[in-house]
């Protein structure tokens, strides 16, 4: 498999804290009202929270699938999360501003928190397909949070990423099929050559 999970693990930075530990550390984020107050007291708090949540979920997902071959859905989910996280701005970056609608941002964070609960359940049940689907939704909410603070951020489109990954997959499948055909051809040729050698040796023995 030419798709490097090691590359995925390190490309946007992996959080070493487990998802459960991260959830416990953020239990205070239990309601939209609390989120709003946190944002009012410390502007851009939710921008940081969103990136940390997605980074953690993404890392847990990579660990969950690293022993197998990542399929199109798993790859697409990871690529989408990468597209959301890549180049994440510092809170004091020039192109970052305070959220114009804190209530809306708080609701987005609450929605992604709900999806994290679903993700954790899927993780416990070993459901990587459901984890991938949930990671996509979490990434979408985080992208919208980022857009609220960084208006110039271009929202990535999952459908486009999915098509790109599918093309990659198809190319890899064609390459694998070609390699297998070549291996089979070589194996068949070697078998034929061995049969001819055995026949020749048998003939020579009979002549003696």
Briefly, what is this?
By secondary structure, the chain is an all-alpha fold.
Structure commentary:
The protein is mostly helical and 208 residues long. Helix content is 74%, strand content 0%. The N terminus is likely disordered.
Question: What brief labels describe this structure?
Answer:
74% helix, 208 residues, disordered N terminus, elongated, 8 helices, mainly alpha, single chain
The number of helical runs is 8
Structural class: mainly alpha
Instruction: Characterize the main sheet.
Output: none
Give the CA-CA distance, first to last residue: 53 Å
Q: Count every beta strand, where a strand is a DSSP E run of 2 or more residues.
A: 0
- Helical amount: over 70%
N to C succession of SSEs: HHHHHHHH
Blueprint of the fold:
Layout: H1 5-11, H2 19-25, H3 32-41, H4 45-65, H5 72-85, H6 102-124, H7 128-149, H8 158-207
Helix pairs in contact: 3-6, 4-5, 4-6, 4-7, 5-7, 5-8, 6-7
């Amino acid at each position: 498999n030419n798709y490097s999970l090691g590359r995925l693990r390190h490309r946007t930075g992996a959080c070493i804290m487990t998802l459960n530990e991260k959830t416990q550390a953020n239990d205070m984020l239990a309601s939209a009202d609390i989120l709003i107050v946190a944002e009012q007291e410390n502007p851009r708090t939710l921008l940081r929270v969103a990136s940390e949540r997605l980074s953690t979920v993404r890392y847990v997902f990579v660990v969950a699938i690293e022993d197998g071959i990542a399929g199109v859905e798993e790859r697409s989910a990871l690529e989408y999360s990468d597209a959301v996280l890549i180049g994440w701005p510092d809170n004091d970056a020039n192109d970052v501003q305070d959220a114009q609608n804190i209530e809306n941002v708080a609701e987005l964070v609450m929605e992604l928190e709900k999806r994290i609960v679903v993700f954790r359940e899927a993780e416990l049940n070993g459901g990587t397909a459901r984890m991938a689907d949930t990671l996509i939704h979490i990434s979408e909410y985080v992208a919208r949070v980022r857009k609220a603070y960084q208006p110039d951020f271009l929202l990535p489109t999952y459908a486009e990423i999915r098509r790109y990954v599918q093309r990659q997959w198809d190319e890899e499948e064609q390459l694998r099929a070609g390699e297998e055909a070549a291996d089979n051809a070589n194996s068949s040729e070697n078998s034929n050559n061995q049969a001819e050698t055995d026949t020749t040796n048998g003939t020579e023995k009979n002549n003696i």
